[in-house]
Amino acid sequence: DVSGRGVGMDVVKNAVHVLGGTLAIESETGRESRFILRLPITVSIIHALLVECGKLTLAFPVNTVSRTIELRRGDIFEEAGRKVFMLGGRQIPLMSLNRLLDQPMPQGTGTIIPAVVSEAGGAMTGLVTDRFLGQEEIFVKPLGVPLSRIKNLTGGTITGDGRIVFVVDASTLFLHSATAT
Q1: What is the pTM for the complete model shown?
Q2: Cα–Cα distance between 179 and 163 in angstroms, integer?
């Protein structure tokens, strides 16, 4: 009658506690049980677009990505000292993610330039990256000190194959680039 009861829930409670959350169980005899999990906002599972940028693998939360695009060198031109491209009749500023994150520029001169188009504060921006790696569902954890001091990153994860992936905060990239150019 009592064998195994609650053992699984104890494991869940310990896992939630390690993440800084709480588990509460409310029961009414003969009626129902209610399980309430509370996790900190800094711990979440998100759908992300993974990209390669220099030596880094980065994740853009899918809800911050308007689209991905592969540009040709002829699609990019300079306007008022900034690189831009046309998308749906609009001029979109284009920035190098490698430069913004102090990563080495890719070797060679490929004919296709991958870019993540993101929108923050009503303004669209293209962020050139080395290559697209695909989409994944990732478990985001907050960065500890000293990594938490790095601008433009909101968290990190470790993929199933052991890669460390940093989650990009696109809105701070835009602020950083606006003051840098």
Answers
A1: 0.71
A2: 32
